[in-house]
Amino acid sequence: MCLAVPGRVMDIEERDGTRMATVDFGGVVKEVCLEYLPDLQVGEYAIVHVGFALQRLDEESAKQTLELFANLGMLQEEFGDPWELAAEASGSPRPDSSETTQEARQ
Amino acid sequence: MSETTALRVPLPDLTAWTCPAPLRDQPRVVMGHGGGGAMSAELVQHIFAPAFGGQTLSQLGDSAAVSLGGVRLAFSTDSFVVRPLFFPGGSIGDLAVNGTVNDLAMSGARAAYLSCGFILEEGVEVSVVGRVAEALGAAARVAGVEVATGDTKVVEAGHGDGIFINTSGIGLIPAGVDLRPERVVPGDVLIVSGDIGVHGVAIMSVREGLEFGVEIESDCAALGGLVEAMLAVTSDLHVLRDPTRGGLAAALNEIAAASGTGVVIQERSVPVPPAVANACAILGLDPMYVANEGKLVAFVPREHADAVLSAMRAHPLGAAATVIGEAVEAHPGMVVARTGLGGTRVVDLPIGEQLPRIC
Amino acid sequence: MKYIDEFQDPDLARRLLDDIHSIVTRPWALMEVCGGQTHTIIRHGIDQLLPEQVELIHGPGCPVCVTPLEVIDKALEIASRPEVIFCSFGDMLRVPGTGRDLFQVRSAGGDVRVVYSPLDALRIAQENPGREVVFFGIGFETTAPPNAMTVYQARKLNIPNFSLLVSHVRVPPAIEAIMESPSCRVQAFLAAGHVCSVMGLGEYPELAERYRVPIVVTGFEPLDILEGVRRTVRQLERGEHTVDNAYQRAVRPEGNPAAQAMLEDVFEVTDRAWRGIGVIPRSGWRLSPRYRQYDAEYRFSVTGIDTREPAECRSGEVLQGLLKPHECEAFGTTCTPRNPLGATMVSSEGACAAYYLYRRLDLTTPSLEASTVV
Asked: Would you call C123 an interface residue with chain B, using a CB distance cutoff of 8 Å?
């Protein structure tokens, strides 16, 4: 359930009436069926399982998640309750104040 | 290793044993028996070694060290059944030379003479045989070895897979060189000569049912020169292995089992090229179990490790050599990886064939 | 690989772990449903890094492990027929049926092939019009859409020599079965991210509410697992039980509507036996009547199957989280990946095999700390 990995669509073509794409997984290229994501565009990332693109990968969400992780320790050091602030930070850009505070203390 | 554990632990109550259903007593050979893992080892231990007897065979190394007329020789044989016959970066002809040359090199010997037996399937194109022979000859010239004797047989169509090749080789073991897993002691430094998993991924990329595009070529190469460069630093290397079938995991498990020491590897230090890592990620494989054809692992006494590493890096086939671990007193016979996150896991002997997984 | 490597970062993992350590105050038992998650946890040693109060129970989400013995025996029978090319995902080949596996069928002359995708099997059918090509369609909601599409294509392209041996299973009924079990210890679920990529979140709020358990949709890389655990523990500590999505980059609330529509068309919900667990009502899919001509069970009337499970295999309890693999007497003795008694010892995402491969010995951290490698 499943080994599915993110790949980037390189090009798209119809074959036997089926929408197929060439997808790049960091230098490894495979043919992938796009029938379940018909509006996927060249350049976008999708989660691929046994030769099928099953869901578009939301790059913005991935970035926000990583930022949330990166902020965890920072916020904890500065404010105490990491959960509230991390959740907040994931929705909006990190407040500048945390950096300035840190600098001011140094 | 699992098998010894099995023997030590008392069996469950036999009267309550309704259906053990073990698949171990398989009436027929399955592909896993040729995978270089636990099943291959069982075949050798339970069928071949008892039947053949003999002191030399009990070494069970990549090649045998034998004395003849006061001279120490390395002697080895290997059979090649690769499909397809030609793959990115090489062919069955290259493998047939380098496989045996490398087995000899792991004893410290430079290969001198090879024998070469061809088993051809009725119907295979003569031009294909010609291309394989060309590749084999070219590889022999690069490795500096002479094909001194050969044989050809033809089997009926459907009874072979195009071309099978067997090669055997002999070479001189230099004085003072004694490479055996038994010599490994805790504290020895574990070096790998370069990126792992390259050959296996190159082959998989062209295998029916798994095909994928990747800019990667087999690392198939003769390692005699690299070994000579290492031995020039010190003849006191403890053991060398070329991690072919079963990959790094199989080679290290064999050494750990034979030496009775534990092996610890730092997973983040193991050089895995992105294309190998990503192909493995898609297929659900572990790069440590993927085959290599032009790499070696070395256990080197700590005091020589830096110098040996430098010598390796100065050689084209060892340019990316790096330390990946060491032999330890703890967990004798077992290979343990320290994961990137700081956890640990046992790296076991592979069982049979590596299977792509879906989950 | 982009979007994988970043989610394995050791520094960020440390931050997540620190946070989990700082919020946990009492013991909690979490079940990761999916075998892929079990694999990541053991492969990276994540369970050793979590606070000891956080116990991870490995769930039944390994499709290879839960495929019923009867279906495997049918597969073995069909694969043995001379006219059949039997195609399968790789990890099914070593799963023991009653006394043998697909490898042994192959060694006895059966044409058994490993493929990456069901579409590869369809192509083999096109290339071999004189042979019957059967694909072993196992898996959860993630794998069902690819198999459904393949059958749909076979009908559309009129490829009569292709059929599917179906044994699909669904996650929500399994969660229900686990929570209804009288000995259930599970207090929260890490739901399977890629199942939700297809199905969305819609099936879970009712379960979270009924059983008062947090359900956190979780991805598969180490940081994803840690974030899933972190959010779950947070809810447990606060006495909450909601459905939360910790895998937003790949899971939308509505899932993939096109895939759901195809499932609706090609399959119908059915009761399904789970190996080691038993029949769970409405927990599986079979081909709907319109596609019955592509159903291998109909095409090859397989009869006389006499299934026998080894009595000492306790994989059912392992799959239900009632028993840790190493607590089974057969573990590592009569049952090893080399000679598996049950399917959980076969596939590397099966709980027993994962334990065997990566956790067999209680390795003491000090001896490893002492090693001064690199």
From this structure: no
